[in-house]
Amino acid sequence: MLCDHTTSQYSRRDFLAKTSLGLGALALSGFGEPTIDPIVRKGALGKPHHAPRAKRIIYLFQSGAPSQLDLFDYKPLLHQMHGQELPESVRSGQRLTGMTSGQSSFPLVGSPFAFKQHGASGTWMSELLPFTSKIADDLCIVKSMYTEAINHDPAVTFIQTGSQFPGRPSIGAWLSYGLGSDNENLPAFVVLVTKDKTGQPLYSRSWGSGFLPSEHQGVQFRAGKNPVLYLENPPGVDAELRRSQLNDLKALQQIQYEQVEDPEIQARIAQYEMAFRMQTSVPEIMDTSGEPEYIYDLYGEDSRKPGTYAANCLLARRLAERGVKFIQLYHQGWDQHGNLPSAIKIQCRETDQASAALITDLKQRGLLEDTLVIWGVNLEERTIHRVN
Amino acid sequence: MSVSVCYYASGVGLICHLMSHRHTMSCRQKIDYNFHIKPILSDRCYSCHGPDEIGREGGFRLDIEEHAKARLESGVRAIVEGDASQSDVYFRILSEDAELQMPPFDSKLSLNAREKALIVKWIEQGAEFKSHWAFIRPVEPTPPASSKWPANNEIDLFVHRKLAQMKLHPSEVADKEILLKRVYMDLTGLPPDVKAIDAFLNDTRVNAFELIVDDLLASEACAERLALEWMDVARYADSHGMHADGWRNAWPWRDWVIQAFYKSMPYDQFVTEQLAGDLLPGATKDQILATAFHRNHPMTAEGGAIDEEFRLEYVADRTNTTATALMAMTMECARCHDHKFDPISQKEYYEMTAFFNNVREVGMTGDDGNYGPLMQLTSLGTQLKIDQLKIEIQSINLQIEKTSQEIQEIKAYLDQKPTINLDYGLAGYFPFDHKATLKNKQKLIFDGNQKVYSNGAPPLVKGTIGQAVSFNNEYDEIYLEDIGELDVHTPASASLWVNTIKRQTTKTQVLIGNAGDKNNYWRGWDFYLEDDNRLSFRLINSIPHNLIHLRSQDSIKLNSWTHVAFSYDGGGKASGVKLYIDGEQVLTDVVYDRLYKNIRTISSGANDEIKRALRVSKSYRAFTGDNGIFKGMIDEIRLYHRIISSLEVAQMVKRQGKEETDPKLLLDHALNSSPQILNLRKKRSGLIKEMIAALDTISEVMVMEEMPSPRATFVLSRGQYDAQEEKVEPATPKNILAFDPELPKNRLGLARWLFDPKHPLTARATVNRYWQLIFGRGLVATARDFGNQGAIPSHPALLDWLAINFQKSGWNVKHLLKIMVMSATYQQNSKGYNLQTELDPENIYLAKGVSYRWPAELIRDNALAASGLLVRKIGGPSVKPYQPEGLWIEKGTFSHKLLRYIPDQGEGLYRRSLYTFLKRTSPPPSMSVFDAPSRDVCTITRESTNTPLQALVLLNDPQFVEAARALGQRMLKEGGAILEHQISYGFRLVTGRKPSKDEMLILVMSYEKNLIEFGQDNQKGLALLEVGESEGDETLPLADRAAMTIVGSTLLNLDEAYTKR
């Protein structure tokens, strides 16, 4: 758990602390105000020994347990054995969640959905994914992933932080910490949650920074008037007034800086400037009204409604274009217990077209070259009928 | 930049260390094992050649001298004292042969040239090993006799000695205003008001500062400040943290902490009571409340969770927290394997867990609420009432006993023929002789009674009398409506015939009951078979702490008709329960006997009282993996709202014809039918009802409590809950300090061990934590880890001196804080960027005062105090200040009590931030942004970041906008008639100092500019002044107030509003 993050990540700190008297001296000697931006910062990691291809990640997190058996994982034998008792050779002593271990029998259930092979790769996919199946050749489906958890909370926590129990930084936070940021107006790690979904809970630790500094935690962008918490000026304060207030503040901070000569003050001034820029840049990103019709057609009708998964997919592309390193979508509701056949259809309707559109869109813009898109889950579905 | 390595030997043989960015060595230097060598070995070698036996490669270990220097099987010696050329290590670390090279290529670890040179030189110099500094008991070092600079106390002597060695020098004392603000914030977390600042500025007494320090340390605000720091350590929160993240009642413990600091409780007592207050002789309620410390960990309520897995997770959390919080040890690393770096074996880890493994608790709780062990927070009035009722009940019990005795002695019952009426007091009789399917409904009803039904299809088969129901499938359970709601204070009985085909050790078979699920505390009652079909009966208010549970010692037979029955006398005790098998009362084990609240069934979530039909052949539990499904036949259910006597039960089995003559049965029957006794029981029933009603009102808090017979603890392979290996006893890691056999092997013994004067870690870890509180960074920078991978102390002698001094002072935290803030080192100014800053950019050697951003809570409290909005009320339930809408519900909808965040109205908006409600999965965003932890785990050191989101909070969060408005108004009203005075007043309230001329000029111009702005557009001003709940003074001109609000906001965004200077 030891992480020495005082050593290396700030270009600012290095610059200030390691040049003779640093920028402080520059400022003091009247060469004007230093223009350093603490946000475009190097990560804690140095350059790897190979040129990395991926520059950013878009992680489409399907919270719950999308049934792989009904989506990607074609199981003809299971279909044949539908209704038979789970053979001990399959379960082989594997533990059961308390949700099912009370059951007296474990009948096998085959998928009620039709599967077909798609693309040159011949990837099997079910009829639930008409759009994703069209981009089959752009996908790499990993069927060997699993967690040891049998519950959602530990599984999500494990997938996002590497430990089943709370307390560790999330994957996006590590990325921000290790690789830094490429954009001076936006956070390195942005989270988009589909609005008004219910199901298994979300936990802010899933995009938290754990024991890393909080600057690495994911920043949630939301649909609506205040896309980032506290982004909007208070009522009665317009941009002009705010600008003038910030100018006064900057002047005061400059006086303070001259008094105490603490480089942190300069960094703070820069953060206020970035905050001010975010007040414009974030709403700009969130406002997709300038997107052409064909884009809406591509992502589907839902993409016109802010806060939907489809709208978030479109935002993910916009964020990727602007150099956000880690963009994570959360879509709840993949926890079908009693009503899988109908509920999974709704989930797929909400996500299939937009997920595929995102890939297509990134590809047509040349962004897929260096963007890793992950469609991932926290639990795998079992092959048995669950009564609860 | 290059600075040469210096060293000196301190009283404990430590070598000072130098944090420069580069080290060079000169030939004359002595290489020190602890300082130079071990950090390299630990980091690069120990993972294969360290304490972990299983991970060890080639059977070779470098962490122990004898092993490192022994002749190896291959014949070579890794280290030969004084002779590198004979040492295999020398060849291995210099080799470029992939086969030989150490660390091996595939480990991705390597040594740089300097590190290699250090190791070689150390071997050449004799390869002297030393114990890890933190495991050597501190011996009081003698402070340097003098300093060439003015020194206030020993701290300065130690710090100055180091400064001199580093060719640095201390700074001037800070300005009085800066110093006052600094010490106020450090010791109380609140700023001085203008009166206090003026008083100090005008106080010319030599001890003026000391007087203030004494006042501050004695204040309630200081207790709150120290409590806040401890709440991080103790991972305090108001919610459960995992999955549903529901509500828990934990704040009484937080108030205990505040009171403990307020009363200056010695630290050893402070910790002992929290670890083991319940085990102290004659433990007081306060001492038991203190133990809530180790119930603060997160808990899960997720359906399907395996109870034991999570229960052991809580045990591990207590162990890890104890080690981190009190000893700065990363014991958690030894949970799955021996510690890779520190001498703590996996076995020792589990020995440590044994101290915390003896709590009767559940792993999977309900979504909301507190789960046992609990302590009742009874008001004095209620307590008196309960005590009185207890006396009355006791007296009736004695009368019942006396009357029973008389009846037994007179023996009149032997001469009378007992009257037996099995229909008397019968609440319901279910013979299961007929069934019919209800038209239009998929419902099977029995015996023509619509309130007796099943949604499944259990067939009728030949029974004991007529037909019986046969339960074969999961959904065959039968519901009995409008019957069977039991109360603690009323007697009840039931009997039935049962014939089961199933027997399992770990699963239960429910015969009949209405006990609920986790989200209603499992409330109700059940009569069932468990543990190889032993007969069980429970009356449940809440599991695991508030119920009666009895179990027969014998099992019932498989595949044969057995008659089973219970009777309960309405007395609220297990002694009032009798279990019968085949007509005979059987011996029982009392599993648990503490029922003190009502057992009426309630709904999940909302917990309203609701009627729940009795279920036959299945539980209502769900979620747990044991649904209590019964397989076999059930017949002739009889429910009574009275006690049925042994004679009656015997009659039920033997049925007609035979007359019972057993005197014991006759006596029991006589006692049950005695009008005197019935009368006394009726009186008792009324009293118990009254007492339960009183007890129902009492709120509770989760505490620690030992089970009467200890639970066995095992080493768990790879930390997995069900992979038990060797059984272990409670003990402590021997390399830290062996556990004294004289000590009790429980949490109290553990606490005593921690405060053994020989303990090398406790005092050091604690003084370091408080040093961090005052100086922003520990003398050991890794305040959570004093192990091999942790930092080496910057001032080892000072650390030890403080540790010894702390112990000598009687573990007096305030004494410790006082010597810190009274030191000249603390009082230096923090200004200036100069050559010294370059030599020591992180100010480790303290050549000037320290500077860093305040913790989240202090920033908000400073704003509230400056604006005059702060409500100074100590303690009480956590409060909900402003928060953007919808943050809780977007995370999840499982918790009923924490579904939506509804901000308080009035004072809850303006309390100090340590009282802000903390929901772990959705902590207050304006605090998280400033690095406030979500308290999932023990946090010793907070991060201190600087982000644009922080600027947005300070500028736009309604809490800060309202504070700016109130501050502006306060300036206008209290600051005097002149604008400059008003601005100066506000400036001082926020920063603690007067503004300079330049600063004043900017603020005056800002005000005037904004005055014009708001004067031109009334609407803008109106809108701005409406932010926040507090009333504004509308007698003041609107534009003035609005313009001054902007000035207030600018002030609250100044560096000194959030930074220690």
List keywords for this structure.
heterodimer; A: 388 residues; alpha/beta; five-stranded parallel sheet; two-stranded antiparallel ribbon; disordered N terminus; B: 1061 residues; Jelly Rolls; ten-stranded antiparallel sheet; globular
Task: Give your account of this protein's structure.
The complex is a heterodimer of chains A (388) and B (1061). Chain A is 36% helix and 11% strand. Chain A is an alpha/beta fold and 388 residues long. Chain A has a five-stranded parallel sheet, with helices on both faces. In chain A, strands 2-3 form a two-stranded antiparallel ribbon. The longest helix of chain A is centred in the last third of the chain and has 25 residues, at 340-364. Chain A is elongated. Among the domains of chain B are: 25-130; 247-257 and 267-378 and 699-760, no CATH class; 426-656, Sandwich (Jelly Rolls), CATH 2.60.120.200; 853-859 and 915-1061, no CATH class. Chain B is 37% helix and 12% strand. In chain B, a hairpin with a 6-residue loop joins strand 5 (435-437) and strand 6 (444-446). Chains A and B meet through helix 2, helix 8 and helix 9 of A and helix 28, helix 29, helix 32, helix 33 and helix 34 of B.
Quick structural overview:
With 388 residues, chain A is an alpha/beta fold.
Summarize the topology.
The complex is a heterodimer of chains A (388) and B (1061).
Chain A (H helix, E strand, L loop, with lengths): L10 H8 L3 H7 L27 E9 L3 H4 L4 H5 L7 H4 L23 E4 L4 E4 L25 H10 L9 H9 L9 E5 L25 E3 L17 H22 L2 H24 L6 H7 L9 H13 L4 E9 L5 H25 L6 E7 L11
Parallel strand pairs in A: 1-6, 1-7, 4-5, 4-6
Antiparallel strand pairs in A: 2-3
Helix pairs in contact in A: 8-9, 11-12
Chain B lengths: L2 E2 L18 E2 L8 H12 L1 H4 L15 H5 L18 H7 L18 H12 L29 H12 L10 H13 L5 H9 L5 H10 L2 H14 L17 H12 L4 H10 L8 H6 L16 H21 L18 H8 L20 E4 L2 H31 L15 E5 L4 E3 L6 E3 L2 E6 L5 E3 L4 E5 L6 E3 L11 E9 L8 E5 L10 E7 L3 E9 L3 E10 L6 E7 L8 E5 L2 E2 L2 E7 L19 E3 L15 E9 L5 H9 L8 H11 L1 H22 L2 E4 L10 E4 L7 E5 L18 H8 L7 H14 L20 H13 L4 H10 L1 H4 L7 H5 L12 E2 L2 H12 L19 H5 L33 H4 L19 H9 L1 H17 L4 H13 L5 H20 L1 H8 L12 H15 L2 H4 E2 L1
Parallel strand pairs in B: 1-2
Antiparallel strand pairs in B: 3-22, 4-21, 5-6, 6-7, 7-10, 8-9, 9-21, 10-20, 11-16, 11-21, 12-13, 12-20, 13-14, 14-15, 15-19, 16-17, 17-18, 23-24, 25-26
Helix pairs in contact in B: 1-5, 7-9, 9-23, 10-11, 12-20, 16-19, 17-18, 21-22, 21-23, 26-30, 29-30, 30-31, 30-34, 31-34, 32-34, 33-34
